[in-house]
Design a protein that fits this description.
The complex is a heterodimer of chains A (249) and B (197). Chain A has 9 helices and 2 strands. With 249 residues, chain A is an all-alpha fold. Among the domains of chain A are: 42 residues, no CATH class; 130 residues, Four Helix Bundle (Hemerythrin (Met), subunit A), CATH 1.20.120. Chain A is elongated. Chain A starts with 6 loop residues before the first helix and ends with a helix. Chain B has 197 residues and is an all-alpha fold. Chain B has 2 domains: 99 residues, RNA polymerase sigma factor, region 2, helix turn helix motif (Rna Polymerase Sigma Factor, Chain: A), CATH 1.10.1740.10; 89 residues, Winged helix-like DNA-binding domain superfamily/Winged helix DNA-binding domain (Arc Repressor Mutant, subunit A). Chain B is 71% helix and 0% strand. Classes of the chains: A mainly alpha (249), B mainly alpha (197).
């Protein structure tokens, strides 16, 4: 007689995934020990089959749709907003990258041939301040929405997560630009903001209330929302001053 | 692999183009089956309803990624399995909620075989044993078992749905069946010898 069938072989045979189903069947016919083991597996599975599932109410489909519909609308709004954010962030990031490249280029070597008029320093500062100001406002909105998310068994943060993911690349550029521009305070806040944005972007679309609480506590412990608000306010003030100077020159 | 019928494919196309009514049709067609799958995995009505909602939300957001290589229902079931698995893991982390009061004691206290029980009591005891044994499975074991046994997915398909290697999915099914068998002991006898599925 062939060796006894293992537990794994018995289960594979039952589920029709055995590599040698004919051998398993022949052995089961001939071996009372394996047949008893197989019967125990089948018995357990039949018992599992008997476990009931509650039948939803006759209007279940309608109730599912009624609960789902406003969430779909929120998803559509979120997708539209994310599209705007992506386009704006891309523009802002491009502006910051150009400024950074321009500043680095000025520092590293003198221009040999002047092919175009450079942007004036005040204009350059204004563009950077506007872009950073908008970036901080968008980041602030994500943090505020997370702070105000309704707790539940499963909290949908997909919109905030997606927007945080969109904001991370721009944040890196602004942080780098701030460091190069000799703005350690702003660079420091952008560095802290980046860590929080990365954490939100890496979260699943739906999280439990406990996970949401943990995320909120970490945001609150760092005081990042307050710091972003302060830096954002300073950036707007500087932007106004810079704008006035620009109009006077 | 199951393919979509023409009307369903047309509904998916219309939903993709922004037709809310078409998406509603898909929701109404599949929500009951998704609830059954979600309930088997979570064993809790409220959790199962939440899983159904998350499934349709995810499907709506990812409609563009549905390639039609399987039926829309199969695609939804995979998303639901993944959502339910995530819900189970979250619940597992929340030990206070995950704990089945006295589950260990309850199962151990049940007699392995008591010939004095009549048929009704016997079947009731079997159901209790199955219920306790299922509650004691890990999220992965329960998810893999439900997908194999009730949804009849292959181990490779289970691996795809849960983000595992097929071998890990297979071992999870094996462990779940072993635990069920061990919990029931000699308490169950198969109705008759069955052929392989």
């Amino acid at each position: 007689m062939t060796p006894h069938l293992t537990d794994d072989e018995l289960m594979l045979h039952h589920y029709g995934e055995s590599e040698d189903s004919a051998r398993a069947a022949a052995h089961l016919d001939a071996c009372a020990t394996c047949r008893a083991a197989y019967d125990a597996v089948i018995g357990a599975l039949e018992a599992a089959d008997a476990e009931g599932v509650p039948e939803p109410a006759p209007d279940y489909e309608r109730r599912v749709w009624e609960r789902l519909r406003p969430r779909l609308e929120a998803t559509r709004r979120g997708a539209r907003f994310a599209g705007i954010v992506r386009r704006t962030a891309a523009f802002g990031a491009l502006a910051a990258a150009l400024l950074l490249a321009f500043a680095l280029g000025r520092m590293s070597r003198p221009p040999v041939v002047q092919v175009a008029q450079p942007i004036s320093a005040p204009a350059r500062e204004r563009i950077l301040l506007v872009a950073v100001g908008e970036h901080l406002e968008r980041s602030q909105m994500v943090l505020i929405e997370l702070q105000n998310a309704e707790p539940g068994d499963s909290v949908d943060i997909s919109s905030e997560r997606q927007r945080a993911a969109d904001l991370v690349p721009a944040n890196r550029l602004y942080r780098s630009a701030a460091q190069n521009a000799g703005e350690p305070g702003m660079a420091g806040v952008l560095d802290e903001l980046e860590r929080v944005l990365v954490e939100i972007a890496a979260s699943p679309d739906a999280i439990s209330s406990q996970e949401l609480d943990g995320l909120r506590r970490r945001i609150e412990a760092q005081g990042i929302l307050f710091k972003v608000q302060v830096v954002g306010s300073r950036v707007r003030d500087r932007e106004r001053v810079s704008s006035v100077r620009g109009s006077q020159s | 692999m199951e393919r979509m019928d023409g009307s369903e494919a047309a509904d998916v196309d219309r939903a993709r183009a922004g037709d809310e009514g078409a998406f509603r049709g898909l929701v109404e067609r599949h929500s009951r089956a998704l609830f059954r799958l979600a309930f088997r995995m979570t064993r809790n009505e409220q959790d199962a309803e939440d899983v159904v909602q998350e499934t349709f939300l995810k499907a709506y957001r990812q409609l563009d990624r549905f390639e039609g290589r399987s039926s829309f229902g199969s695609w939804l079931h995979r998303i639901a399995a993944n959502c339910a698995y995530d819900a189970l893991r979250r619940r597992e982390r929340d030990k206070a909620r995950a704990a089945v009061p006295g589950a260990e004691d309850e199962l151990d206290a049940l007699p392995a075989h008591d010939p004095s029980l009549d048929r009704l009591l016997h079947s009731k005891e079997v159901r209790r044993r199955v219920s306790v044994a299922m509650a004691r499975l890990s999220p992965l074991e329960r998810s893999a078992f439900v997908l194999r046994h009730f949804e009849q997915l292959s181990t490779r398909e289970i691996g795809d749905a849960l983000g595992l290697e097929a071998s890990a999915a297979k071992q999870s099914v094996f462990r779940a069946v072993r635990k069920l068998r061990d919990a029931l002991g000699l308490f169950v006898v198969p109705r008759e010898r069955t052929e392989t599925r």
